Amino acid sequence: MLPDSHIGGAGESGRVVGLGTIAREWGRIGITGFGGPPAHILLLRRLCVERRRWLTPEEFEDGIAATNLLPGPASTQLAVFTAWRLRGLPGALVGGACFIGPGLVLILALSVLFLAGDPPLWVLGAAAGAGAAVPAVAVQAATSLVPASFGRMGRARSARARWTGYALAGAAAAVLTGPWLVLVLIAAGLTEIAVRGRGRGRGPSNGPAPDGRTGGMGGRAAGLPLATGPLALGALGGLGAVAWVAFKVGALSYGGGFVIIPLMRDDAVHRYHWMTDGQFLNAVALGQVTPGPVVHTVAVVGYAAAGIAGGLLAAAVAFAPSFLFVILGGRHFDRLRADRRVQDFLTGAGPAVVGAIAGSALPLAAALGYGWQWGVLAAALLWLVLARRGVVLTLLAAGAAGVLAVAAGLPPA
Questions:
Q1: Where found (predicted)?
Q2: Is the peptide bond before 412 cis (omega within 30 degrees of 0)?
């Protein structure tokens, strides 16, 4: 539970945590947090629970479950949430900014290098090599989500048939519908609400999920009202279009960091022509190998569209919902977690997210332009999916392979 008496105040020890301490500790995690959400959660737990004992283990686990119900990057929301628990609004702003800032600065600096008009040859090779491994990262991300999502749906044959249908719809949407993928994810969640609601009859909608679990894939019904958000921004072009793409990433992404790929790719490559397919692969790779949230990828897209100003705007719009959801809704997280309709939405949106992430691998692979890149992709698939190795090491190794390839005279040399 998240007791109101403890929100925005002192830690478990009763001592008020200074903003300077929050800035230093959350900034350190922002610098060293390679490896995505699992690494971020581990580092935050070590800091807040084990080392400083600002929060109890139960409070921290409740925070994970609660932030998993919100749209956008879950590990960022957990960083904002834990800082908010310690110092309220000032803590949330300082902690979140210091968690996001280091990776944002680094990825914008790398964007300047990798998206330059005439980058060095070794940069071209590293980008082509790392980009070749990105479809494998998508496959690995999708397969890692299958067990929890499939188990959440239930053992009934009809439930498993719905899971398969949602997953196929998500995969088809990622390949065919581009920026409107989010509507398919929402439709899957709403369909599951309707199906399970009929099964329960007209009983009360609130209460724990039938299986007693909370949290989930990160497909979050709290973002439903935002689905009818500023669609007009996308028609404006320029910074308005950058803001719309970033808004979808931050407020309408269900399923965690990697679902941003199918949400962004069609807009960035085909609709607005900010990047080539190869450059988009580079953007995804940069988001994976830099510290901090994977959602930093949106800053690369913003940079390609409008330079540093576009990158900063994209990051600000993408991360703003994480702050707002925690600051404005934190006191209501327990009620949200207990709402059956929220749980049903998660259950339906989850498999659609899995399918969307897996489906995004197809157009990503189709974008590979050189024969040697397919060898890198095959090796990455074996390393990630079969050997179950880490993403960061895989992308770094793929980048090194690309450098060697161009040094040997292979294209794009």
A1: Cell membrane
A2: yes
- Confidence (pLDDT) at 388: 85
Q: Is the pLDDT of residue 59 over 80?
A: yes
**C-beta separation of 357 from 258 below 8 A:** yes
Please report the beta strands in 117-276, taking only residues with DSSP state E, as ranges in sequence order.
none
Domain boundaries, the chain: 4-101, 109-115+139-368
User: Phi, psi (5° rounding) for residue 269?
Assistant: -95, -50
The pTM for the full model equals 0.80
Q: How far is CA 39 from the centre of its chain?
A: 14
**Per-residue model confidence as pLDDT tens digits over 352-394:** 989 988 999 999 999 898 999 999 999 999 999 888 888 889 9
Place of tokens 């479809």: 135
- Taking the C-alpha atoms of residue 387 and residue 382, their distance in angstroms, rounded to an integer, is 6
List Cα–Cα distances, 62 to 260, 266, 389, in angstroms: 25, 36, 29
Closest-CA residue to 13 (of 58, 42, 56, 60)? 56
How far, in Å, CA of 134 to CA of 131, rounded?
Answer: 5
- Residue 162: name the closest of 9, 351, 412 by CA: 351
Q: What are phi and psi of 213, to 5 degrees?
A: -100, 160
Alpha helices (H) in 201-289, listed in sequence order: 238-251, 260-265, 277-289
pLDDT-based confidence at residue 208 (cuts at 50, 70, 90): very low
Task: Compute CA distances 93 → 101, 128, 136, 409, whole Å.
Answer: 12, 37, 35, 49
Residue 387 near residue 273 (C-beta atoms within 8 A): no
Task: Report the candidate in 96, 104, 198, 188 with the shortest Cα–Cα distance to residue 149.
Answer: 188
- Condensed to tens digits (0 to 9), the pLDDT of residues 305-318 reads 999 999 999 999 99
Q: Which residue has the tokens 């489906």?
A: 359
Planar angle of CA 399, 404, 407, nearest 5 degrees: 125
Q: Give the end-to-end CA distance of the chain in Å, rounded to a whole number.
A: 58
What pLDDT does residue 165 have?
A: 97
CB 356 within 8 A of CB 170: yes
